[in-house]
């Protein structure tokens, strides 16, 4: 086959350059070599399996007359035999490296590089300079036959002049910096697929000569972030969980109030600021999750109380223990936080003094009720259709009989003893088997000390009127102060009380156990749920209350935890909340309080302490102090509204102030300042322990009653603005 000459072949900018080929002298077949094959240097055909092909330059025009297969294809690539290099060959390679301005060591290292990924497709789009003719220099040809580059074949592209290279080098480095984030050296730029044209070639273009035509190539981009072609795309996990440095003395509040450092700061202080650890807010995320979860469960289980700021009244006609219907009014405090009622919050673990200690007022109410019940007896209707345990004044003398020992003639003695108190509806020591009234466990004369009888030795007729009648009233615990009343189940349900079907007397039930819930008291007569001091920190009065806490924690608390760490900030948070709840339990014992109000004001105190500790490095510390003080005073004024506990705010802030001096990290401004701050830690820890111990003594040992103290938490602008909360039933 006759090959056309090179003069008859013309290339345009839109045509793919024809491949080069080498004629075979024995078989007349052409071996096609693609000069644009990326990832492989331009190699001449070697002796393969007995066939020898002359290594002569090939004219590009011959490729237009035959079909070819690219040298990039793995189908026609045969393995070649590796031979030992001769001394002359190694000398030629060293000389070629010197001509190109490289050291022999660099050339050897580049030749040793191998791709660890599949070469890119040759059908790639890009614009490169295609040379007019190929250089047949034996230096370049010999070197390129041995090298395996990680980018385009250098022989195909023509290099710019040295002056142009020097001018373009700074701009090229800037471009590489934008793509990769750091400047790469010259060797790395040569390896990158983004470098077009390459800095090496067979010869330099003549100055003033128009450049070669542009040949469009299809480029397959694997990664655009400066990574090498073919590398795996790595998810930036570290960036997702990167720690955001919290500047000491500034923080989120400092940014909002435009705090700045002084222009001149000592290098010793600067080094301390830079060396401070930056923590991740694990405690903030945990406490926020717990608050949300408990609030959702509380609303789903206990429902939502009437919403508002006053008292909600419900009136209905209810069947009471006398067998007639009566109009009854039920009064309940409204909850403006959109959440459960106060009774439900007490059941969940709210701060409530009668559940944490033996309250004198509640204890007196229970004792008075037992004294009245001791003198009660069973009031039996004449037709024996019903009976109820009541006093003589409440038992009708015309419609019923008040069975009282020993005045009742039918029972002058019981079990051989003269009894002064009784009778009791549906309970008698003569017919009870469990627990039986036998020596030495005889039932006492005082009926308020009788146990609950669980098994009777009787039928329907015993000839005892207080046993054979139908009982219409049993104990019901109503309200939050342990008030017990013998009444019907219908009335008890209307008053949202706790009805005891198994008991017959109020002295046989413990209403404060029902009111408080949670774990039962060790001694039923003495409440001991002191753990409410910290349990209430995880509760909220409603949905709005929880959202306020979440907003505070995800801003202020999260910001401070980055500075102090989860351990220190959790100590300040919990101890401040406990101290605030303890003070609130002393001065407001009958109000059910929930929420981390004391903890949040303890965290606000941390901002003041951090401001004082960084006073010398801030540009305008007095201005920052004034802004922060205005915010805290506004929050204290907000606590004067009803149902917002200002005692928890004040004592939580004070305790948080002392704890912050002891636990927050600090910077020192010299050796004396360092010793002073170490002594300061010990002093403020002792002050906090003294404050907490004093509050414990006031709560458990010497309880106080302060009437005017309530003005600190609510100012009565109107008659009912600070009306005290209590559950009461009113008859119409």
UniProtKB/TrEMBL annotation:
One of its GO terms (molecular function) is serine-type endopeptidase activity. GO terms for biological process: negative regulation of protein secretion; regulation of epidermal growth factor receptor signaling pathway. Residues 1-26, 162-184 are annotated as: Disordered. Keywords: Endoplasmic reticulum, Glycoprotein, Golgi apparatus, Membrane, Transmembrane, Transmembrane helix. Its main location: endoplasmic reticulum. It is found in: Endoplasmic reticulum membrane; Golgi apparatus membrane. GO terms for cellular component: endoplasmic reticulum membrane; Golgi membrane. It is a multi-pass membrane protein. Gene3D superfamilies: Rhomboid-like (1.20.1540.10). InterPro entries: Inactive_Rhomboid, iRhom1_2_N, Peptidase_S54_rhomboid_dom, Rhomboid-like_sf. Residues 528-664 form the Peptidase S54 rhomboid domain. Coiled coil: none annotated. The chain crosses the membrane at residues 282-305, 533-554, 566-588, 594-612, 624-641, 647-669, 681-702. It comes from the Eukaryota. SUPFAM superfamilies: Rhomboid-like. Residues 1-15 have a biased composition (Polar residues). Pfam families: iRhom1-2_N (PF12595), Rhomboid (PF01694). Residues 1-161 form the Inactive rhomboid protein 1/2 N-terminal domain. Regulates ADAM17 protease, a sheddase of the epidermal growth factor (EGF) receptor ligands and TNF, thereby plays a role in sleep, cell survival, proliferation, migration and inflammation. Does not exhibit any protease activity on its own. Belongs to the peptidase S54 family. This is Inactive rhomboid protein. It comes from Lates calcarifer (Barramundi). The lineage of its organism: Eukaryota, Metazoa, Chordata, Craniata, Vertebrata.
């Amino acid at each position: 086959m006759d090959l056309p000459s090179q003069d008859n072949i013309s290339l345009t900018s839109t045509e793919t350059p024809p491949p080069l080929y080498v004629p075979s002298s024995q078989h007349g077949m052409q071996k096609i070599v693609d000069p644009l094959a990326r990832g492989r240097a331009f190699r001449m055909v070697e002796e393969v399996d007995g066939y020898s092909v002359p290594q002569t330059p090939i004219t590009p025009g011959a490729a237009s007359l035959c079909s070819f297969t690219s040298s990039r294809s793995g189908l026609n690539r045969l393995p070649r035999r590796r031979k030992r290099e001769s001394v002359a060959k190694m000398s030629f390679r060293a000389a070629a490296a010197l001509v190109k301005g490289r050291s022999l060591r660099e050339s050897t290292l580049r030749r040793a590089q191998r791709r660890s990924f599949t070469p890119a497709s040759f059908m790639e789009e890009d614009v490169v300079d295609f040379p007019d003719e190929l250089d047949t220099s034996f230096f370049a040809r010999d070197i390129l036959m041995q090298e395996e580059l990680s980018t385009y074949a250098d022989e195909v592209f023509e290099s710019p002049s040295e002056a142009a290279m020097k001018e373009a080098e700074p701009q090229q480095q800037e471009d590489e910096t934008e793509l990769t984030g750091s400047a790469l050296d010259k060797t790395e730029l040569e390896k990158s697929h983004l470098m077009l044209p390459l800095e090496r070639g067979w010869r330099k273009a003549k100055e003033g000569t128009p450049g070669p035509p542009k040949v469009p190539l299809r480029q397959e981009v694997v990664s655009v972030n400066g990574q090498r072609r073919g590398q795996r795309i790595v998810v930036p996990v570290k960036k997702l969980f990167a720690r955001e440095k919290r500047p000491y003395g500034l923080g989120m509040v400092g940014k909002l109030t435009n705090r700045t450092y002084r222009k001149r700061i000592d290098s010793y202080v600067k080094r301390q600021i830079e060396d401070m650890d930056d923590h991740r807010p694990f405690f903030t995320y945990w406490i926020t999750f717990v608050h949300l979860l408990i609030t959702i469960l509380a609303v789903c289980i206990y429902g939502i109380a009437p919403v508002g700021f006053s008292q909600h009244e419900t009136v209905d006609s209810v069947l009471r223990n006398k067998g007639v219907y009566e109009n009854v009014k039920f009064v309940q405090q409204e909850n403006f936080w959109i959440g459960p009622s106060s009774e439900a919050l007490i059941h969940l673990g709210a701060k409530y003094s009668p559940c944490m200690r033996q309250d004198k007022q509640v204890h007196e109410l229970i004792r008075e009720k037992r004294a009245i019940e001791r003198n009660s007896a069973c009031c039996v209707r004449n037709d024996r259709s019903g009976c109820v345990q009541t006093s003589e004044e409440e038992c009708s003398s015309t419609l019923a009989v008040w069975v009282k020992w020993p005045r009742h003639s039918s029972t002058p003695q019981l079990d051989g003893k003269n009894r002064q108190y009784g009778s009791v509806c549906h309970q008698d020591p003569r017919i009870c088997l469990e627990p039986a009234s036998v020596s030495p466990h005889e039932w006492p004369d005082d009926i308020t000390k009788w146990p609950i009888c669980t098994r009777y030795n009787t039928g329907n007729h015993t000839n005892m009127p207080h046993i054979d009648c139908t009982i219409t009233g049993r104990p019901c615990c109503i309200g939050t102060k342990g008030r017990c009343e013998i009444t019907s189940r219908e009335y008890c349900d209307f008053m949202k009380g706790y009805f005891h079907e198994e008991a017959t007397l109020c002295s046989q039930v413990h209403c404060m156990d029902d009111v408080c819930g949670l774990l039962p008291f060790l001694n039923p007569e003495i409440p001991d749920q002191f753990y409410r001091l910290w349990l209430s920190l995880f509760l909220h009065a409603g949905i709005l209350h929880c959202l306020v806490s979440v907003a505070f924690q995800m801003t202020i608390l999260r910001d401070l935890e980055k500075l102090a760490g989860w351990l220190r900030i959790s100590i300040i948070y919990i101890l401040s909340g406990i101290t605030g709840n303890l003070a609130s339990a002393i001065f407001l014992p009958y109000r059910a309080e929930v929420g981390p109000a004391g903890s949040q004001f303890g965290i606000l105190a941390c901002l003041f302490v951090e401001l004082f500790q960084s006073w010398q490095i801030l540009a305008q510390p007095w201005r920052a102090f004034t802004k922060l003080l205005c915010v805290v005073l506004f929050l204290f004024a907000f606590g004067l509204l009803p149902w917002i506990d200002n005692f928890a705010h004040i004592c939580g802030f004070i305790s948080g102030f002392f704890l912050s001096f002891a636990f927050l990290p600090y910077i020192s401004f010299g050796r004396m300042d360092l010793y002073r701050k170490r002594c300061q830690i010990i002093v403020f820890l002792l002050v906090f322990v003294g404050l907490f111990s004093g509050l414990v003594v006031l709560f458990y040992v010497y309880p106080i009653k302060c009437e005017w103290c309530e003005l600190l938490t609510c100012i009565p602008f109107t008659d009912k603005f600070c009306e005290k909360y209590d559950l009461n039933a009113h008859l119409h």
